[in-house]
Specification:
- Strands 1, 2, 3, 4, 5, 6, 7, 8, 9 and 10 form a ten-stranded parallel β-sheet that branches.
- This protein is of the alpha/beta class.
- The structure holds S-adenosylmethionine, 6-(5-methyl-2-OXO-imidazolidin-4-yl)-hexanoic acid and iron/sulfur cluster.
- The site of 6-(5-methyl-2-OXO-imidazolidin-4-yl)-hexanoic acid (DTB) has 16 residues, from strand 7.
């Protein structure tokens, strides 16, 4: 993995693009919308995260959203052209009383015809099966970084805890979405270590989100030296080469790298993005800007998006505005 990351940039991109073309339509990108269904107040200590209650970031501890709020957001995401709807909760893991309302959300989102995804933290025995029965297609749970660097970022759950949750997800028949974060002060060798872990999962994750740290004031990692965006693109390329059949998602940090680097990331084999004006608590490019970028690059949204993506921009604006204003 390190030898790949070390390649001259053009050689690396050429290899990644070649692998990409053998396995995917090079002009198609999958759009996943993201909604924070339970924001803030998390007991964990992930050093990058604005939702950990121990850091003073201005993110408040909110209640779980209602079913109606989630369905409305999913409908708007669908009208906007997203094919998958991912629900995130700032929990160490769901308690039994938390899971029941989330199962209703999964059923309702699935009934709209969207693919469903959830990221709720660590799972206890039986929970993955309940999620699967409700219609959950994907579960996102990241390894975040290499085992060697991990201890500098998180102390309240182990690397093995994460691998155990991934096993539960896999065993329940849910597709695995698993990736990590770069730009946390790790070395290139440690970035290679993350890819090695991901690529050696059996089977490999169906979806691999690569996040570039979004620095949030109040978190321990705010003020970390920023990663050169070329290095972020290199990570995407090595993920593509080593996980040739996985969707590689250009995830958090798109707004910070700008359009030209996003285009390079697509060239390096990224074929999925988080789409919508917000990630969980931080900003993402506006959906309308993303559609314009994809159009400029001749990239088509993939799958379910095709039927609905042509909704008039004016109508979309209005739907998004009325959602924002409640
Ligand atoms: N609480 C659950 C958990 O940690 O498993 C689910 C939500 S958690 C916010 C999902 C992932 O978002 C984290 O594993 C991390 O990879 C990513 N993430 C969180 N904060 C981030 C940040 N500031 N920049 C980039 N990625 C971030
Ligand atoms: C993932 O790998 N990235 C998303 C999603 N999975 C849940 C989350 C990014 C969060 C960025 C910081 C925030 O907006 O709070
Ligand atoms: Fe909590 Fe997840 Fe944030 Fe860690 S990443 S502090 S577990 S919300």
């Amino acid at each position: 993995m390190l030898a790949l990351l070390d390649l001259p940039f053009s050689d690396l991109i050429f290899r990644a693009q070649s692998v990409h073309r053998e396995n995917f339509d090079p002009n198609s990108v999958q759009l996943s919308a993201l909604l924070s269904i339970k924001t803030g107040g998390c007991p964990e200590d992930c050093g990058y995260c604005p939702q950990a209650s121990r850091y003073h970031t201005g993110v408040e501890n909110e209640d779980l959203l209602s079913l109606e709020q989630v369905v409305e957001a999913a409908q708007i995401a669908q009208l906007n052209g997203a094919s998958r709807f991912c629900m995130g909760a700032a929990w160490r893991g769901p308690k039994e009383k938390d899971l029941a309302p989330v199962l209703d959300m999964v059923r309702a989102v699935k009934a709209l015809g969207l693919e469903t995804c959830a990221t709720l933290g660590m799972l206890k025995p039986g929970q993955a099966e309940q999620l699967r029965s409700a219609g959950l297609d994907y579960y996102n749970h990241n390894l975040d970084t290499s085992p060697e660097f991990y201890g500098q970022v998180i102390s309240t759950r182990t690397y093995q805890d994460r691998l155990d949750t991934l096993d539960k997800v896999r065993d329940a028949g849910i597709s695995v979405c698993c990736g990590g974060i770069v730009g946390m002060g790790e070395t290139r060798a440690e970035r290679a270590g993350l890819i090695a872990q991901l690529a050696n999962l059996h089977p490999q994750p169906e979806s691999v989100p690569i996040n570039n740290l979004v620095q949030v004031k109040g978190t321990p990692l705010a003020g970390t030296e920023r990663l050169d965006p070329f290095e972020f693109v290199r990570m995407i390329a090595v993920a593509r080469i080593t996980m040739p059949h996985s969707a590689v998602r250009l995830s958090a940090g798109r707004q910070q790298i700008g359009e030209a680097f996003q285009a390079l990331a697509f060239l390096a084999g990224a074929n999925s993005i988080f789409y919508g004006d917000k990630l969980l608590t931080t900003a993402n490019p506006e959906a309308i800007e993303d559609r314009a970028l994809l159009e400029k690059l001749g990239i088509e949204p993939s799958e379910a998006a095709a039927q609905v993506r042509m909704m008039q921009p004016a109508l979309l604006e209005e739907a998004s505005r009325s959602h924002r204003d409640g």
